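Shipment paperwork, digital attachment
Item: protein structure file
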Amino acid sequence: MAQDLVSDVIKRAEECMHHAQETLGHDLAAIRTGRASPALLDKIRVDYYGVPTPLPQVAAIAVPESRTLTIQPWDRSVLGAIEKAILKSDLGLTPASDGKLVRLVIPPLTEDRRKELVKLTKRRVEEGRVHIRNCRRDAHEELKKLEKDKKISEDDSRRALERLQKNTDGAIAEVDRAGARKEQEVLEV
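Attachment content:
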């Protein structure tokens, strides 16, 4: 029974850490680099018949070239709304429409913009680390409470805390690797 309690706490902590890693992955994918990526447009909301709808739900997004994105709406009447949404976004891109689809040319990044994006990447990675540490802290408190309430032994608690720390170190290392990859991608000319 004690092992079940410990396993549940560790499993919840692992899920929490995994969620933090996934969230960071989505955040990093939305940071613009010199290359075209459909993930850039994931957070853009288009006014679709009065309802703010994510752009990928109203159009097909393709990458025909390394610096070009094409957006082909399922319904042509949304073309203007897509252009407006892109212009209002903080991407700094100007859409070009031919009446059937919207083209976005991704300009090369300036050195200053690259430095800003590296700072943003580092900030997001640090937020991911903090989230992972919070998961560890919550699990640590839960294990200590179980030990205090005599539901698990001191040895079980110590082993669980070691396992928890090992999982935390692995999750933080993965977050750091993801951040380093993104920084390298941003700095690539």
